[in-house]
Amino acid sequence: MRIKNYLLNHLYAFFYSLGQISRAPLSSVMTMVVIGITLAFPAGLYAVLKNAQQLSAGWDDVAQISVFLKKEVGDQAMAELAKRLHDRPDIAKITTVPAAQALDEFRKLSGFDDALRALEENPLPSVLIIQPAAGYADPTAVEHLQASLRKLPEADFVQLDIQWVQRLHAVLEIAKRGVEILAVLLGLAVLLIVGNTIRLGVQSNRDEIAITKLIGATDGFVRRPFLYAGIWYGLLGGIIAWGLVSLALLLLDEPVRKVSALYDSAFALGMLDVWTTLLLLTSGTLLGLLGSWLAVGKHLRAVEPD
Amino acid sequence: MIQFTNVTKRYPGGHEALRNVSFELKSGEMAFLTGHSGAGKSTLLKLITRIERPTTGQVMVNGKNLGKLSRRHVPAVRRQIGMIFQDHKLINERTVFDNVALPLVIAGLHNHPEIARRVRAALDKVGLLGKEKQYPVTLSSGEQQRVGIARAVVNKPALLLADEPTGNLDPDLAAEVMGLFGQFNQVGVTVLIVSHNVDLISRFRSRILHLEKGGLV
Lengths: 306, 217
Known about the structure:
heterodimer, A: 2 domains, 4-stranded antiparallel β-sheet, B: 6-stranded mixed β-sheet, 10 strands
């Protein structure tokens, strides 16, 4: 019976708060839109960041090491070196690019055909392109491999092609931290927006609150509709934020496709996934509840019958 | 039902609204409270409803010492009191029905047919059946006063307090409203009415508490 009454009390507050909001539709909707825009900011940045991470995540696998050989190493020596290296457990595949082949490729691709013809000798070195074995693809193992390759007497210069990807990841990590800080600050802003709206609500309902208390309403009875109003503001603000971010991603999708087509990539922007959506709506709702709870606790006590 | 023992109320600033007031109103009794404005009538009502606390002395209502009552327990005491105000104190944004139903909802009644039945019974008692869907502002002052009375009695309280309930009514209506209070008293409700209307009061053979400059005489 007590539990039933408790639930019914909440049901009453639930509908009553909806009534309160619909009584001032314009200002309610404006509050929700402001919350929506505030939440859309970090959510949108997060979505963009996630896309960037997804795009670059695939690049980790293509970690390969280019070993540029010294000029005096001939094709025969290169083949022998490749064979020797291939026995190492941390190397999966070796592609040999002899100097002559490299020059051929460069001629075809660069368009400097005539200029290169004028050269008396091939300026390009032979290259070994080394693919680390699956179990040795993590950064430390790859660096270890790189160091030991550097010690080869035939090697002139060893370059890890993954390095720029790692740098990009480090930058993305910083960006992620930035978005997190922004999210916390804007979450605080939502608290203040909801708190202020609820404070105004308490003030404009002063008489009603005083009368209700005079008739014997408990603090909980008076507080409940405001808490629900806070939940509504937060939840609907979250839904608006979701809509704004989705709309922005849709608008960006077409140009992004064009750009990735130019790079021969099938990359397309991902929409907000289920978890991000849930996170957005939940944090909106909780911020709304917390904001109204803080405001109501402070301002309801000040309203007493006289 | 109500017991004041040596009650003094001094407001911040030193104004002494009540001075050493003692009286008892037994359960089922009906009494009038008279006195000039500023004599302390409002303060006395505010002490019974725990809007104010006594500076010294003891206020007992329905067995509870209000001076010692914690904030948390105030609502339970107020629910047992039906209050009628000179300025009605109706909620203008809500219909007559919702206004009268409010004490029931606050008390935790959620059975809608039962609420509707009791609200109609209360409105019928004050002759306002059929005005449930109207808003208070569309009613005359006398009708608003009667909505306030319906709200005060809908929960069948043991104690009824009325602050100048006939102040804004024409003589016929005033007599009718006073008659209502007499009826409530006859079914066992304790009634305390603040009134200036000497003519009406004299028709009842009830006790009269007269306040003068903060003291009972």
